Amino acid sequence: MTDTTKTNDGLRAITRDMVRQQLSDVAVDLFAEHGFERVTVEQVAAAAGVSVRSVHRYFPAKEDMVVGPLAAYGEDVRDALEDRPAGEPVMASLHTAFATMLRQRPQTQRDKVAIRLLSSTPSLHARNAGKHLAWARLLEPLIAERLRGEDAELRARVLVQASLGAFSTALAAWADEGEERGLHELLQVAFLTLERA
Hints:
This protein folds into 2 domains: 3-62, Orthogonal Bundle (Arc Repressor Mutant, subunit A), CATH 1.10.10.60; 67-196, Tetracycline Repressor, domain 2. The protein has helices at 3-34, 41-48, 52-58, 64-71, 73-82, 90-103, 109-120, 122-146, 152-175, 183-196. It has 10 helices and no strands.
């Protein structure tokens, strides 16, 4: 593969990510204004100035317009977890891994809207739960390696599910209309609660 080919592939990937994000932004705005169930893929395509086929190329299902952009962040959490010292307490490592992932992408007001949609729309809530299961499959083996003694895999599942619960709860609290604290502060409260329990 030549340097030019590598550069072109990199630019194409960046362009795909930008288009995907712009389509997601248009969709979230429409869903927030009119309700998820009332907005069609055709309306999203028209508002974005693209064809329905183009929308489906990036998002196979309408739910993916909200959840899809978030799914890949599980790999960022996994990578950050792999970088944590082996002797660090497990929950502290998970907390840092989630915080590292969040620092890689600044949160926006639109993110708050998307989180509120995830909480209030059953099909989005279900798709988000599926995303968390995928994240858990990435994280559990790394945690199991750190645990000693019996039932390491079961204990790893419990710890990872607890960390995902803390992460989701912090996100939901941050997205509340009246909440003024930052997401990292709320994430710290959520994980400290687990660590002290």
